[in-house]
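Anyone else keep sequences and structure tokens together like this?

Example one:
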Amino acid sequence: MADDAVEDVRDRLKAALWFAVGKIVDEETLRRNRNVTPQFIGALTETVWTQIENVALDLENFSRHAGRTTITTDDVLLLARRNQDLHAIIKDFVDQQKAAKGKNKSKR
């Protein structure tokens, strides 16, 4: 991909994130009868974007360290290892998905 194309995709993703964050903030401010500034939404969007970039890099590195080119649920679980509650939620979800997949295979 050319640099211009990569930058265009990045800008579009960031705009979509800004929209989504703005929508969530709007819903919460209405629910709580509060106001926020557009600068707050922008700063929050930048914080979320930076966190997404860090998570993506960590997942890529975990996968690469394991000798894989594809990120798996094991990488996501490794990423969540320091947050026990989040780790448990993700692990339960993965286990449920595996169980459901096993049931579908046995019905065939």
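And example two:
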Amino acid sequence: MMLGAHEQRSEVARLLSEISAEYEAAQRGMTGLSYGSSRHEFITARMENMGQLHTQLQTLVGDAAIAMIADQLTNFR
């Protein structure tokens, strides 16, 4: 599916926003959930979701995706 420039920018912004949300959830999961397997499973699920979102972003922008994610997460705080 071909996206116009505006739609592509919107999709990139949406994916980066979702990646940030997954990252925040994983960060909170390290302190908010009980210890043990439920904590590990929760964080693993967030990281897997980030991987899927990265793949979608990479389809749109190529190899620049990982740098965009790094910038997004660096500016997260």
